[in-house]
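My main concern about presentation is that the manuscript never shows what a single data entry looks like. An entry of this sort, consisting of the sequence and the corresponding backbone structure tokens, reads as follows:
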Amino acid sequence: MASAKLELISIFLILISIFATQVLSQTSECETESSDGCNNKSKALPLKIIAIVSILITSMIGVCLPLFTRSVPALHPDRSLFVIVKCFAAGIILATGFMHVLPDSFDMLSSTCLSDNPWHKFPFTGFIAMLSALVTLMVDSMATSLYSKKHHAGIKPEGEVAPGDQEMAVTSGGFHGHHHGHQHGAKNEFEGSQLLRYRVVAMVLELGIVVHSVVIGLSLGASNNTCTIKPLVAALCFHQMFEGMGLGGCILQAEYKFFKKAVMVFFFSVTTPFGIALGLALSKTYKENSPSSLITVGLLNASSAGLLIYMALVDLLASDFMGPKLQGSIKLQLKSYVAVLLGAGGMSLMAKWA
């Protein structure tokens, strides 16, 4: 399963890199008002180097932090504090989709640099985001079904009893042992299904974040506007750390082995710096307001927004709030709601600067 994830994520990175190379090689650019004294390539370069290092470090801290919480009793996945922190991180991911990625896509696809027909005649951003959410639902549902069938392939159908069990059933006390065995088997089956669900959620969320992170890094690396790079670096560090915490919590609940955890941590940590480096390498031919750039990046942002919003609402928040732990405690629900609002509010505030 780790090799499959590695192949999928690698394919995504290769496709986005090819897309970016084609887009950034466009020479036509729409005429826009110049920003007074902000476009300075020599001053922007050290800021981008700082961005690569700082975002890499904060990404690693964010995604690795939940993975070491098993040694801290208060932050164990079974404890209430872990649920509250996870809800806070889910609020971050939700606000990222609604407040950062979706508005950027609207701005790009409604730009005056694009022709009226078809870009100003139809709301492509909302349409692509909707399709992305539906496709994510399909992938989520089908992956869960496939993994569940694979998991249950070696399990006996309920009611099928081995000869040894039949012998035990007719002895005194045998019925109790047989009944207890069925209860134990049902419990193991439920736990196995829940674990498979956690693994599918972690996989789909990682793929969505990888696409989103490369696009963000690409825009930052190709830009020479020092007025926007400075606040964007701070906002991205905040964003990557807490988004990483949300992903790290999903990886922890998926109970992967060390190698699988390392692969997922690696790809999350390097995707944004990779995007910055790619944009930096292609910055000579980059035309920020070229129609091809606006269309491609705008569509990628719309698809990322739909995926992130779906994952935050359905797989993270709804899954926790409708689960037995939160349903069994109104007090914990209220604390979790506050955590979601704080996470979403903090990330929404970042939209003022980035």
About this structure: The CA atoms of residues 94 and 309 lie 5 Å apart. The chain has twelve helices and no strands. The two ends are 36 Å apart (CA to CA).
